[in-house]
Automatic annotation (TrEMBL):
Record lineage: Eukaryota, Viridiplantae, Streptophyta, Embryophyta, Tracheophyta
Protein known as: Putative leucine-rich repeat domain, L domain-containing protein
Species annotation: Rosa chinensis
Sequence ranges assigned to domain F-box/LRR-repeat protein 15/At3g58940/PEG3-like LRR in this UniProt record: 2-119
Source taxon at top rank: Eukaryota
Amino acid sequence: MFPECIFRCKTLEVLKLTLTFWQITCDPPTSGSFPSLKFLHVSVSEPDQEVMQKLFSCCPVLEGLTMDGTIDGDSRNGKYSFMISAPELKTLRIDLENIWEFLDVSIDAPKLENLDLKRLGLTNCFLMGSAKSLVNANIAFREYFKIVGQLDLSNFAMALLDQVSDVKSLSLSAHYLEVSIFHLLFVYNTFGSE
């Protein structure tokens, strides 16, 4: 367990953590944690869902969050879920490999301006009002159709694109997903002028 003084440090503005399933976990206090933390980079390898939930909910002035690594094997029901709740968050970068389990990421960040999502495969992202403030979105989908068989992964992509329809700048990468993703852009006239 990390010492509680790290969570209560008033001068800490930038923190990089590595969380793995075999390492000691962190257990932040429910209130008063990271009072000055503005930038957090978390590298994960099959972390505990509860630890992730607590960590992302205890940074009241966090402006930038980067999360990368691997999420597989921790869930008890075939789905790994966590919520990022940060009222001041402006930039969110998620680059997670999740091949075998579904991942639900709920994002409650009303001031979110920049969203960078990479290696999205079996991932549902729920922006929970965060999309209204978005200016830039960079989304890179993965090609999992060969791994998971008959599952139509374009539904994940289409659901996310529906949520970022008001963004000013969009960069998409979808090497092997069906054309229906791009068809969505034209059918709904999402990014065209009206």
